[in-house]
Specification:
about 300 residues, alpha+beta, two-stranded antiparallel sheet, 14 helices, elongated
Length: about 300
């Protein structure tokens, strides 16, 4: 089918307008008479409605930060928010961004940000509900919170749409190669067969973004309670710089190795997470604080 080949060629051209390619794919969907394919294209072009089930590549795991205020004008900004004590619905607020925008909007955001990170602010109601679960010394209270979104996360959404559509078209050619090549109608193809191929290529689970699974086991095997050398070796293995490790050593020495997660330790983790956001530390933004929190807790004997 000439149209299928045109769409395939456009997808493989990284400079092509993805939204235009998806509109062209709607003509193919009409020919195939496959409702799932048509619905997916409509959602990607127009955006997903509230309450819709999102494909995995549109659920982005991230880290939340907060601004705290207290008595006598005291405050702390850009504090990485711990999520362990949050109820499940607030954990979703703190750790996930469900990106529902249409492809054209995503393309415009990528072009307009020039490599900078974006923010998604928490709703005021979520901030109020989180206050009792996120405590800070000095009677500091959470007054604002936000999630970071890297431009690379948006670029990944665009890449996933391109790659999955391409996989679907290639598999489709395997189903009816002769008919597609000769421009004959593909309406005879069993809808069930197309649906199976569509679900496998578009909604497959091979590309789920890592969110920290398996971290605890890895840390357990590498870190011994009270042995800073084991902690240092582990941090070096995940590409933490030696000067950052030395700073953490001084912080822990300052608290005389007491088994407590001090504010300075939390601040250090927040600083390291910012390095991940800026790309200085080559670790995923969502994974970074989980790695560090688990490692330090095992060293201090808090796990």
């Amino acid at each position: 089918m000439k149209l299928l080949n045109e769409i395939r060629d456009e997808i493989t051209n990284s400079n092509s307008d993805l939204s235009s390619t998806l509109r062209k794919a709607k003509i193919l969907a009409a020919s195939l008479k496959n409702k799932q394919f048509r619905l997916w294209l409509n959602n990607e072009l127009s955006g997903y409605k509230e309450g819709s089930e999102l494909p995995d590549y549109r659920i982005i795991f991230t880290q939340s930060f907060g601004f705290f205020t207290g008595p006598f004008g005291s405050s702390m900004n850009n504090v990485a928010l711990p999520t362990a004590n949050l109820p499940d619905f607030l954990k979703d607020v703190a750790e996930k961004i469900e990106f529902t925008n249409g492809i054209k909007q995503i393309e415009s955001l990528v072009e307009g940000t020039e490599g900078k990170s974006l923010k998604q602010v928490w709703a005021a109601e979520a901030v109020i509900l989180a206050r009792e679960h996120i405590q800070m010394s000095g009677r500091l209270v959470l007054t604002d919170a936000w999630k970071h979104l890297n431009v690379s996360d948006l670029e990944n959404v665009l890449d996933q749409v391109r790659n999955r559509l391409l996989d679907f078209l290639l598999e489709l050619q395997e189903i009816v190669p002769d008919e597609i090549a000769s421009n004959e109608s593909t309406n005879f193809v069993q809808d069930e067969k197309i649906s199976n191929v569509f679900n496998y290529t578009i909604y497959g689970n091979d590309n789920i973004v890592a969110s920290g699974s398996g971290i605890s086991q890895n840390v357990t095997q590498n870190i011994t309670k009270g042995d800073f050398e084991s902690l240092s070796n582990y941090l070096e293995s995940i590409q933490v710089q030696k000067e950052e490790i030395e700073e953490l050593r001084e912080i822990i020495d300052e608290q005389n190795n007491k088994p407590s997660f001090s504010e300075k330790v939390k601040t250090w983790i927040g600083k390291m997470t910012y390095k991940a956001i800026e790309g200085i530390w080559n670790v995923g933004v969502a994974t970074a604080p989980k790695l560090l929190e688990s490692a330090i807790k095992y060293y201090l004997g808090l796990k």
